[in-house]
Amino acid sequence: MAGQEDPVQREIHQDWANREYIEVITSSIKKIADFLNSFDMSCRSRLATLNEKLTALERRIEYIEARVTKEPLLRPLEDHFK
Q1: Which residue range is the domain that position 47 belongs to?
Q2: How big is the CA angle at 51 (ends 36 and 58), to the nearest 5 degrees?
Q3: What are the CA-CA distances from residue 80 to residues 67, 68, 69, 73, 74 (Å)?
Q4: Closest CA to 33 of 73, 81, 82, 25
Q5: Using CA atoms, how far apart are residues 42 and 37, in angstroms rounded to an integer?
Q6: What does the alpha-carbon distance between residue 56 and residue 44 come to, in Å, rounded to a whole number?
Q7: What is the rounded CA–CA span in Å between residue 23 and residue 21?
Q8: 54 three-class SS
Q9: pLDDT, tens digit, for every residue of 36-45?
Q10: CA angle 75, 80, 82 (to 5 degrees)
Q11: pTM (2 d.p.)
């Protein structure tokens, strides 16, 4: 009977070692997933902020372009009324 306990105990110890290994792997995967989710949210937020800034700059450029293209057209009229 003592000879049968050794293999059984060995299996139990191996089972616990496997469970601990699986727990470490599972925990590591969860940490990686949490990091990636956090990174994703951070990137999305920063990209949204950047998009708002770019949109504002585009509007300003369009306004300036409109003023520059209208300006030469207005000068002959101003000269005419002088």
Answers
A1: 1-82
A2: 165
A3: 20, 20, 19, 12, 10
A4: 25
A5: 9
A6: 18
A7: 5
A8: helix
A9: 999 999 999 9
A10: 95
A11: 0.61
- Domain count within the chain: 1
Q: What is the DSSP letter of 82?
A: -
- CA distance linking residue 12 with residue 41, whole number of Å: 43
Amino acid occupying residue 60: R
Residue 71 pLDDT level (bands cut at 50, 70, 90): low
- Annotate 43-62 with b (16+ C-beta within 10 A) or e (fewer): eeeeeeeeeeeeeeeeeeee
Supply the DSSP string of 16-51, one letter for each residue.
HHHHHHHHHHHHHHHHHHHHHHHHHHHHHHHHHHHH
